[in-house]
Amino acid sequence: MKIDLTETNSSKINAAMVQARRDIGTPAIGMVLTLVIVTDEENAYDALKSANDASHEHPSRIVVVIKRVSRSPRSRRDARLDAEVRVGADSGTGETVVLRLHGELVDHAQSVVLPLLLPDAPVVVWWPEGAPSDLAGDPLGALGQRRITDTYSCEEPIGALAARASSYAPGDTDLSWTRITPWRSMLAAALDQQALKVTSATVEGEDDNPSCELLAMWLADRLGVPVQRTLSAGPGLTAVRLETKDGAIVLDRADGSLATLSMPGQPDRAVALKRRDTAELLAEELRRLDPDNTYESSLKFGVTRLESAAAAPAPAPAKAEEPAPAAPKPAQPAPKPAKKAAAKQQ
């Protein structure tokens, strides 16, 4: 069921949602959180589809905030709110409100969203792209316990990681970090089976892929070893190699779906490691609403520190000390002729 509201306000939107639930015969609210999506018209459809798919695991009220660009000075002065309310089959397992903000209202989106939040329920804010530099300092971001971004959608993903690290606040997370959860789980399990000390590591993947950088920083932070970043044609992250004294532990995924795990003294094993879509990544992030300390530590390790550690030359082996040259023996006086010595004695 869909209800279109033009030049409306938050009170009328709430009343429309209550009436829509009654009309379809489901007055009870069984939603567990509010998901606020901040996006534009171009990306709203894909973001809303992913959120609806994720709502089958996490029934939620989805509030989509679309800030419309005003083309003239007069339209920028006129504040207007248009809304679309969806309940039932059109909104997954929860309910959806699509807000289109015009004019000066664009700068006060939090005042429109606040009355639409579920009472006594967590709030998660998601920017599919175009996230602010300071997530917790953003007026909409300040409403959420969790704030989700995706640095993969940035023009300079690697540079965006440094910006995220400098402004990090508990509750921030990134779908680029979520993408490497299966890789981290597989590598941690492999190291549990092999009681070997890792001496160095290599992460191979596409250029400007923040997931590769985050995995490399996680390895460097947790293992305390130099990690080298190498490039491949993809797709995405393709291989991780951990060097040990008994051989290498290698997790290689060339086709984006099936990987091969190789460990010293064991046969190679095929493991499922497919690339997941946005709905699966979003559903994983909605499972936990507490701060991710591991992500924080890895993010703050820093790409610059990672590159400098990988470029540092290995210490030269100590040379054996050369024996000191023997001291020259003192010169002995030449013996005198026997005749001269006999003459002196006479």
Tell me about this structure:
- With 346 residues, this protein is α/β, with parallel strands linked by helices.
- Helix content is 33%, strand content 24%.
- It has twelve helices and 14 strands.
- It has helices at 10-23, 41-54, 73-77, 109-113, 157-166, 175-178, 181-193, 210-223, 278-286, 293-301, 303-311, 338-345, and strands at 2-5, 33-39, 60-67, 80-87, 95-102, 123-126, 146-149, 172-174, 198-205, 227-231, 237-244, 247-252, 258-262, 269-272.
- An eight-stranded mixed sheet has the order 1-4-5-3-2-6-7-8, sandwiched between helices. It has a six-stranded mixed sheet with strand order 10-9-11-12-13-14.
- α5 (157-166) links the parallel β7 and β8.
- The longest helix is centred in the N-terminal third of the chain and has 14 residues, at 10-23.
- The chain is elongated, with a radius of gyration of 33 Å.
